[in-house]
Amino acid sequence: MKLWQKEVLGVLFISSIPVLLSLTRYYGFGLTWHGTEVQPRPITFVYGALYSLAVTSSLYFGCTRIIQFIDRKMPWREGVVRRLAVELLVVFFYASVAQYFIIMGFSKTPLYEGIAVTKADLFDNIIFGNTITLIVVLLMEGVFFFQQWRKSVLETEQLKRQQVESQYESLKSQLDPHFLFNSLNVLSSLIRKDPKKAEQFVDEFARIYRYVLDVKDEMVVPLREELRFLDSFMFLQQIRFGSALELKENISAAHLELYVPPLSLQELVSNAIKHNEVSAERPLVITLESTSDGIRISNNLQRRTDRVISTGLGLQNLRERYRILTSHEPDFRILEGTYRADLPLIQAEA
Questions:
Q1: DSSP E strands, 177-308
Q2: Coil, strand or helix: which one is 30?
Q3: What's the angle, vertex CA 327, arms to CA 142 and CA 227, rounded to 5?
Q4: What is the per-residue pLDDT across 128-161, written as a single tens digit (0 to 9) for each?
Q5: Which residue in 198, 279, 205, 206 sits closest to 236, CA to CA?
Q6: Taking Cα atoms as reference points, which of 298, 197, 290, 299 lies closest to residue 238?
Q7: pTM
């Protein structure tokens, strides 16, 4: 059964309750209108059922759509008190206006001819309707919070799994036999030619693995720390490739304390080196720069002749982590001979 069908059946059931209760009191389909007994006629039942259906359906469907609209414009995580105050104010205003017009409309029917609708009558009915509306809204939001809590627990576990997979992929790439072989060859050469730089090489090499272990339980890290880690990674790569590999950084100071998923920058830079030719004739230039709400990593596209097989798991993993952490998604594209990756920066939670 579709959602709208369930909603319609629910409204029909709820709207029938007041009519059924009145039937247990007045066997001849009798009802009362604000303390005045209405003559028990079959038409009374029809009017009563229509009135109850009009109030129930207008309040349910109207308030539901209002809550859905407010939820899109003012998510709970951006301010619970402000959101709840606005929601109750708008819902109560709508419910009061809707009930006023429904009551006034039904008071003009022949059934209630000669029975005046006073301000007290309107006030009592609207207060009663708003009380029911408040109970329903609180129940709906209670269910919503439970669902969000459950979703949050599941997403936290999923993020941890994604984090472990990311760390595994990063460690695997760092521990790749070619990476280790090349790094040891570079180190061996440096020991003979430049012992001081060789010592620095070892320090940066150790810093890479220390960082991976330090962030193994973190969902996000400050961009400042991620850039330090990237500097260590690029130091090893530039010792190997020399001037054929260049990293340009233009990062806003205001962005340094915002957050990114750990190892995300290294993943993208590593992919650029892995899939593109890096030579003196065709140097690879990688650029990191701030955008209005994120960071952009781009490089000139010059694919290697010996194409490297890619599973795409690294980028897929990064997308999934962002999907769990924020509503903003990373963007990867090729544009005018340049590979470009835009990563949103994440605000720290208050």
A1: 221-222, 245-250, 259-260, 284-290, 294-300
A2: coil
A3: 130
A4: 778 877 777 777 777 777 776 677 666 666 666 6
A5: 205
A6: 197
A7: 0.52
